[in-house]
Structure formats: C-alpha cells, structure tokens
C-alpha cells in the first residue's frame, strides 16, 4: 500500500521529498497533466499531476501535519479514507 511506502522511509527522507515537490509546485502542478513530473529523490519518477499532488499532500501530512492547512489542498477527506483503508 502507498502508506507503507512512506511509513517505511525515515522521517527526514519523507520531509526532503515533500520539499522537493514543493519546489516543483512553485512552477505549478497541473492535475490534468498525465506524466512528466520528476521528483529528484524518487528514481525514474514520471508522475502525473494528480499523483504528484497526492505524494505532496501525504508527505506533508506525515512530516509536517501542523502545516497541512497552509497547502490549501482539498484532500483531507481522501487522506483520512486512505489511512483507514490502509489500516484494514
């Protein structure tokens, strides 16, 4: 599951990639883009816009939950559903 990938990473790595995606996000992340977003610390990543945004949100939620609202991304409900799904 996706959460297992993140949870098995050291917290510093989760945070580092969150900042890498934030840097990419400074130029804008188009959710409709089907591929092309490359995350430097994730080898061979060619993420879609939605996948990039999902990784961004989850990494911030895990590493800096107190700053999650500042992202202004409407994924709170989906994140909670995914956490519950992963727990089962």
Could you walk me through the main structural features you see in this protein, from its secondary elements to its overall organization?
The chain is mainly α and 88 residues long. The chain has one domain. It is 55% helix and 0% strand. The chain contains 4 helices and no strands. The longest helix has 15 residues, at 11-25. It is globular and about 30 Å long. The termini are close together. The mean pLDDT is 85.
Give the helix level as a range of percent: 40-55%
Total domains: 1
Mean pLDDT: 85
Order of helix and strand elements from N to C terminus: HHHH
Cα separation of the termini: 11 Å
Rg, Cα atoms, Å: 12 Å
Q: What structural category characterises the helix and strand content?
A: mainly alpha
Please state the overall shape, judged from the principal axes of the Cα atoms. globular
The count of helical stretches stands at: 4
Oligomer: single chain
Explain briefly what this protein structure is:
The protein is mostly helical. It is 55% helix and 0% strand.
What characteristics describe this protein?
4 helices; 88 residues; globular; mainly alpha
How are the SSEs placed, and which strands pair?
Elements: H1 2-7, H2 11-25, H3 49-63, H4 76-87
